[in-house]
Design a protein that fits this description.
The chain is mainly alpha-helical. 57% of the residues lie in helices and 8% in strands.
């Protein structure tokens, strides 16, 4: 779990997204890009696995990752979100441990 701290001194623990929650969020992101997420499709399954591995279910990181995915798709004139696209997008972000 990660903690979010404010200048006021409170801390709130956020739990990682579960698999179903992650798929729900990813489905919405795919739709915003005019695509359909199919977890049974090999390419989508690989992209989902890459997102899971990189974000570890962290919603805030997932929300930072998707604008970069959109950017990578646009710059490279790609139509499909693949694990390579996710990896390229993640390489742009500064991600701590």
């Amino acid at each position: 779990m990660k903690s979010l701290y404010s200048r006021l001194g409170f801390s709130h623990r956020y739990r990682a997204l579960g698999r179903d929650e992650l798929l729900f969020v990813l489905d919405r992101h795919w739709k915003r890009l005019g695509r359909t997420l199919d977890p049974d499709d090999f390419t989508d399954a690989q992209a989902i696995a890459a997102v899971e591995r990189i974000t570890r279910g962290n919603f805030r990181l997932l929300e930072r990752l998707f604008p970069q995915i959109t950017r990578v798709l646009k710059i490279n004139q790609l139509e499909t979100i693949t694990d390579d696209v996710v990896e390229a997008a993640a390489s742009i972000l500064v991600i701590g441990n």
